[in-house]
Amino acid sequence: MLRAGIELERNRGDLIGAMIRDGGKAITEADSEVSEAVDFANYYARSLDLGEAVADCRSEPLGVVVITPPWNFPCAIPCGGMLAALMAGNTVILKPAPEATLVGWQMINTLWQAGIPRTVLQFLPTPDNEIGQALVTDPRVGGVILTGSRATALMFEGWQPEMRLFAETSGKNSLIVTGMADHDQAIKDLVRSAFGHNGQKCSAASLGILEAEVYDNPDFRRQLADAAASLHVGSAWELASKVTPLTQEPGENLRRALTRLDEGEEWLLAPQMVDGNPRLWSPGIKLGVRPGSFFHQTECFGPVLGLLRAESLPVAVELANAHPLWSDRGHSQPGRPRGALLARTYPGG
After folding, report:
1. Is 168 a catalytic residue?
2. pTM of the predicted model as reported, rounded to 2 decimal places
3. Annotated catalytic residue: which of 75, 202, 211, 265?
């Protein structure tokens, strides 16, 4: 397993190139993802050292484990799932996302080069149709590790209710900015989180929930718009590019978010299609997003940030918690008293 980390590091350039080719991932984003995969290899290589902590437990492998990763993190997430399952004594089948088959092939070859036998770790690209369904529901499969949408997890469960399914699903995530926050740091965090990998990740701050004194501050708005507008939009092969083509053309929800305003909303920064490419959009920022509105409640998965106004910190927390699906949360709030309030009422990863 330690050799796997070494080989992943050695093949960093090829893995980065595959992520750029398959998903249009910016070089800096792809580079960080390879580092995460290396960290997984080193972590799981040492994970058996934790055995004494669970000395009274009996561990048994599941047998065959199928890994079904997402297209937005096609290297780190499947690598973590595969190595964890292997360390637990299972055999593994990687079914890469159809949009990221090259990344999966490059990674699986890297792990084979590290000495993991092909009989233990196998590669099976399939479409997301009845063939993929047959794979994950095969009675010889002991477990499935899924990272994807909630709808996909429910679909798997519907296919086979008794499936040993380990699922991490996406959500609509937010960052709260309070009146005591450092404005420069808050803007940096909002822009990086909302538009990193073009907002195509479950940890993206799709919602900025601002206390009234921040929301109403014209300087904060101007600086936020300027920061987002300054991001270089272009090909993933350009080192300067921070916003690159989407992996897929916008679906119905994202297209609506990019092109329509609901009641009370206005553009602080209007997104634009760039060079006639339907997958390449400049960042967009919406003002006046209302509680319960389409953008407040819908995961759009793209380069759009919506701003909500909150009269107080408790109201901001209520707005964040009003969405049923979330996986990551953030806040820009120095100081213990209000920080303690957030810790109690604003859970997140």
Report:
1. yes
2. 0.88
3. 202
